[in-house]
Design a protein that fits this description.
Elements: H1 7-28, H2 32-54, H3 60-66
Helix pairs in contact: 1-2
Length: 78
């Protein structure tokens, strides 16, 4: 994913890259459960960055509000 122009999307992209790096460290140390969890969280963050970039600029604030709560962790919903 290229660096997004939206500052909100950049934050989610950065979070995704950090979680991916952490997942790699855990995987190399044979902590597979933690690695899978963090990798999934990274995927969630990338999806959120893509959603933000696909929404009109004027609607992004409302979209970000939807990313709160347990529903925001459901891949199908994203």
């Amino acid at each position: 994913m290229a660096i997004p122009s939206s500052s909100d999307a950049r934050l989610y992209r950065r979070c995704a890259l950090l979680r991916y790096g952490e997942a790699e460290v855990l995987l190399k140390a044979d902590y597979t459960t933690g690695a899978v969890y963090l990798a999934g969280y990274g995927i969630e963050c990338i999806l959120k960055a893509l959603v933000i970039m696909s929404v009109a600029v004027g609607d992004r604030h409302e979209t970000l509000k939807l990313f709160r709560g347990s529903k925001a962790h459901e891949y199908e919903w994203l």
